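Case study: SGNH hydrolase-type esterase domain-containing protein.
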Amino acid sequence: MATSYPQVVLFGDSLFQGAVGSPDGFSFQAALQSHCLRRLDVVNRGLSGYNTSNALQALPSIFPAPVPGGPKLEYLFVLFGANDACVPLPTNFQHVPLDKYKANLTRIITHPNITAHKPKIFLITPPPLDEIRITELDLAAGHPRATRHAKISAAYSEAVREVAAQQHVTVVDLWKALMETAIAKTPGFDRHGPALGDPEGGQRGYLEHLLPDGLHLSAESYRIFYDIVRPLVGSEWADKPEEERFGWMLPEWRSAPWLDEDAHLAGPGKA
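Here is what the predicted structure looks like once written out:
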């Protein structure tokens, strides 16, 4: 029977779809795959524009129930909410009400096709929103006003924390990590006032570098994101000496069971 590598699946919207890119030489997905090399396959199922309702419709096509010889879903990272949190507009119909969003997240992580694999599940908060920048771009694109608001987006991130606590899964607080970085790199910012990116305060601060279009992550943001995720995957082998090759799906070539029968064909030093 063929060897099927267990999987790390990134299930989300454009924030995961964009994780494959490398605008400055860094790719979140490539970095994670390098971390998991020879042990796990990192599978990107980022779907730009999708909200949680769309995700539920697509889920059975993305996550089959376990089958003999098929890959096992070992880790599942779920990142939806940036589109659910859109405000209802004649020019945009991605909005999902907050209560339904929470119910959808619960349905995603408790879906039979997922729970049958018994994966480690991580719910990720949507990142902060730079509403100041979003408003500029949305008006230029023909929307009557901003499609997303900073305070509403923050409420959806808080909803992820609540669902994670209720379902006893781990939360990855991307909102907090990026906002704390932005605050630390914005000299003189008063954290007791309106948040960075909120038009009420009128200050973008370092969010300008972390969220270039107000919504999507810069390479620096993806690095911050990766630094949070990396320790969560492969803790049983991540700190072991590389020469132990703990958890490899196929053996190191010198100890492969077929080495003896093939060695006479290759000769010394052949790859």
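For the exam, be able to explain this: The first helix runs from residue 14 to 17.
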